[in-house]
Amino acid sequence: MDETIEGYPEYIGTVIRPPSEANSLILQVTLGCSDNRCTFCPAYKDKPFRIKDTGQIEAEISRVSKMYPDTRRIFLADGDAIIIPHKKLKEILSLLIKNFSRLSRVSCYGSIKSLESKTVGELAEYKELKLGTVYMGFETGDEEVYRQIKKYGSPQGNVEACKKLKAAGITVNVTVIAGLGGKALSAEHAVNTAKILNLAQPDQIAVLTLMIAPGTPLFDMAKKGLFEELDDFAILSETKLMIERIEDFKCQFFANHASNYYPIAARFPKDKASVLKGLRSVLNGRRKEMLIPDYLRGL
After folding, report:
1. Residue 140 lies in a domain
2. Which string of DSSP letters, residue by residue, matches 144-198?
3. Whole-angstrom distance, CA of residue 137 vs CA of residue 244
4. Residue 272 included in any domain
5. Does residue 8 lie within any of the structural domains?
6. pLDDT tens for residues 16-44?
């Protein structure tokens, strides 16, 4: 449902933001996702992708800044704000700085599709205008799993996009999805995702657990027996294998999303050994009581 309340941002359809942006003001400058083909993803199916008109965005920023003048963090929704043309995105960021005097950081999602069209120099200009963090969905590092989910680009393309952002001084937070290869490609998914993460070395890694949503192509594949979902301990085994293969670069590591069975919040490489020790304890003892039950998990 569209929501327009005097003094509040205008939200059209489903709005999604990263868990770490819970305290940020969300401004919807684009609608939907510029790709929106991924077989596992139920998001943004309620609206076609488009970029809001500049006048509409400017009016909304002006209105909302009067309601929340002390805002320090802003998240630009929906799924791929980086795809906004360079000049227009700079105008939006400049308007945010002009209207929110205490603004410290802007963040957004960014896809390989949008980032491949931006230069390091252009991204550095966004950084100067307080775009501090970009969230990227790597999903997997395995070529075959990537092909099966029908996501735009490639694992290596995601690495190059991540490196481009880092070269511009922008923090990169990456998500991967445990269980995305199913039973058939679980080991390949874990090992090759670790390889890609080692090449990209993002500032943060967030592991989500696959939850097959009704209405998605993957749901239909699972019903037909073409995709076998991993159970809870298999998910943890896959996660452990991936962590074992992640090299010792500095990053935050999270697996504490609502979808996860076993919450992890750590700093690597400092906490890597203790995280692996905890996972081994749960797996070796088949300690079901250490896992979050299905009825408490959700997207």
Report:
1. yes
2. HHHHHHT-SS-HHHHHHHHHHHHHTT-EEEEEEEETTTTTTTHHHHHHHHHHHHH
3. 21
4. yes
5. no
6. 888 889 899 999 999 999 888 999 999 88
Amino acid at 175: T
| Domain-embedded: residue 200 | yes
Token pair, residue 59, equals 């009016």
User: Which amino acid belongs to residue 122?
Assistant: E
pLDDT at position 3 over 70: no
User: Token pair of 97, please?
Assistant: 């700085």
Residue entry with tokens 């393309």 = 157
Give pLDDT tens digits for 51-98: 999 999 999 999 999 999 999 999 999 988 999 999 999 999 999 999
Domain of residue 248: give its range.
19-296
Neighbour tally for 218: CB within 10 Å: 24
CATH number at residue 174: 3.80.30.20
Please state the length of the chain: 299
Burial 276-285 (b: 16+ CB within 10 A, else e): eebbeebbee
Indicate the pLDDT class of residue 2, thresholds 50, 70 and 90: very low
The region that residue 139 occupies, defined by phi over 0 for left and psi between -120 and 50 for alpha, beta otherwise, is: left
Question: Domain count of the chain?
Answer: 1
pTM of the full structure? 0.93
Separation CA 262–CA 25 (nearest Å): 29
